[in-house]
Amino acid sequence: MNLLRMIGVGLLLHTKQLSRSSFEIATALIVPVVQATLAVYLFRAGGEPGRLLEAAVGAGLMGVWSSVLFGSGGAIQRQRWQGTLEMIMLAPRPPALMILPITLATAVTGTYAMLATLLWGRLLYGIPLEFAHPLLFLVAVPGCILGLGMFGLLLASTFVLLRNANALTNTLEYPIWLVSGMLVPLTVLPGWTGPIAAVLPTTWGARAVQEAASGGPVWPSLGVCLAISLGCLAVGALMMTYVERRARAAATLALV
Q1: Which of 69, 114, 126, 212 is deepest in the core (most CB within 10 A)?
Q2: Which of 113, 11, 115, 21 is nearest to 67 (CA)?
Q3: Coil, strand, or helix at residue 131?
Q4: Distance CA 158, CA 165 (A)
């Protein structure tokens, strides 16, 4: 119970911090709307107006992923700038448990992206929000967000070691959502992307949400997403301990 309370308090604290960042607010307000607009026109130009709901959901997932990716890297950088990263690493708890609330907070704030794209598509483009499995959709979205938060811990372990995490986040955003099939079906991608997509929790989380919206078996995809995410959590915890010790040895933990 103490562990869950610590994670819950940390999640609330970091969510409040993100909500007070002008950059995070501006990004959350603008990016999902732009992505939703591009997705709608992309599907219309391709002669597939019947898949506009899928386009809106996919754009929302892209926004969630962007929030997790940039939020995790940005959170570590903010801890450096504020001089609190060393205190986090010196806490009596394992480093992974101290960073996990940060990555979960970025995933929670990313829920706005999903809501914004759906509302934007409904109000501006008249997309009917007729989900095949409405209740399962309400389960799949939080499950996907939880999985992305644990995946963010694996990414954050490298952000502790890098002095400029933005250099890595900028290169990961588009390849990950593309190979995960958030907007473009995996069947149209080259065959060599299949094994990469199969090991990413983003792929299965996106599939679960899309199947809840359009119709299909939601639980298998959601289960695989959470299973892979738990693996990311375990590997991320090991990597976090390793990079924290390496950063201490190299005296690079507090460098900006």
Answers
A1: 212
A2: 113
A3: coil
A4: 8
pLDDT of residue 223: 93
The pair phi, psi for residue 144, each rounded to 5°, is -65, -40
Q: If you average pLDDT over every residue of the chain, what do you get?
A: 80
DSSP string for 176-222: HHHHTTSSS-GGGS-TTHHHHHHT-HHHHHHHHHHHHHH-S-HHHHH
Model pLDDT, residue 166: 62
Residue type, 62: M
Angle at 102 between CA 199 and CA 38, to 5 degrees: 60
Q: How confident is the model at residue 208 (pLDDT cuts 50, 70, 90)?
A: very high
- Tell me, yes or no, if the pTM score tops 0.85: no
Q: Which helix (H) or strand (E) holds 148?
A: helix 134-161
Rounded Cα–Cα distance for residues 114 and 213 (Å): 13
Distance CA 252, CA 256 (A): 9
Q: Are 18 and 12 in contact, with CB atoms under 8 Å apart?
A: no
